[in-house]
Amino acid sequence: MIVVKSAEEIAIMRQCGRILMAVLDRLRAEVKVGIKTCRLDTLVVEETKKRGGKPSFKNYRGFPAHLCVSVNDEIVHGIPGERTLEEGDIVSLDAGVLFEGFHTDAAITVGVGKISQRAEQLVAATEGSLSAGIAEAKCNAHVGDISGAIQEYVESRGFSVIREYTGHGVGRELHEEPAVPNFASNGGPLLRNGMTLAIEPMVSAGAWRTRLAANLWTVLTSDGSLAAHFEHTIAITDGEAEILA
Ligand code: MG
Fold it and tell me: What is the CA(231)–ligand 1 centre distance, in A?
């Protein structure tokens, strides 16, 4: 069931989103050569709590951390730990915040030091595809319009969209209906004012197929290609998409 939010509920999600955006800004500033990924996890806890929120991911379906940290060929659900970031890595940081009963969910991919031109192009294409998808998130459009815009943007730049994982509704639950695929689906649910969606293109520089790491969480590209991930939580208000986080 798709849950449509009231203006009051969206106002709470707006506050929740501000916390998450501040947390991600802080993380982006901390990404540098030599930092351990577990340090970024600790920062999420500190930065979220001091703003009155709670990290959404810890223990969600058993996930063991507060932040997903996915490096290079890791696409999503990387687990922070003793790994140290190195010059030329690209690192995807995906976090969620719970505030007054509502979640927001967002992700960025950041280069560590100087990255290759190919990596730069991949990151730019992924971020650009998120904007292209959000531009289609309008009242009376369909979820498939978002999906199609993302796929077209990514593939026209020579990259491929991950198909086995999708965006989703978000609100009182971290994952709500509808699924928001990153590849063209046929129409799909109608978009309406009050819908809140996490739109999140995951993009590979090579094949779109994935494999699961031995930890049973981390999702990697099947062929070892670099991957990038950007995500915003949006609300459809007054017919248009408003970025909440
Ligand atoms: Mg998400």
Answer: 7
* Distance from residue 167's CA to the centre of ligand 1 (Å): 6
Assess if residue 160 is contained within a domain: yes
The secondary structure element, H or E, covering residue 95 is strand 90-99
CA 26 / ligand 1 centre spacing (Å): 19
Dihedral angle over CA of 58, 92, 159, 199, nearest 10: 50
Q: Is residue 121 part of a domain?
A: yes
Q: Is 2 part of a structural domain of the chain?
A: no
Q: How far apart are CA 225 and CA 205, in angstroms?
A: 6
Q: What is the CATH number of the domain that holds 34?
A: 3.90.230.10
Q: What's the pLDDT tens digit per position in 20-53? A: 999 999 999 999 999 999 999 999 999 999 999 9
Task: Specify the DSSP class assigned to residue 62.
Answer: G
Domain count, the chain: 1
Q: Which domain holds residue 89?
A: 7-240
> What is the CA(8)–ligand 1 centre distance, in A?
22
Distance 170 CA to ligand 1 centre (A): 8
Query: Helix or strand or coil: residue 43?
Result: helix
Within a domain: 1: no
What is the whole-number distance in angstroms between the Cα of residue 86 and the centre of ligand 1? 26
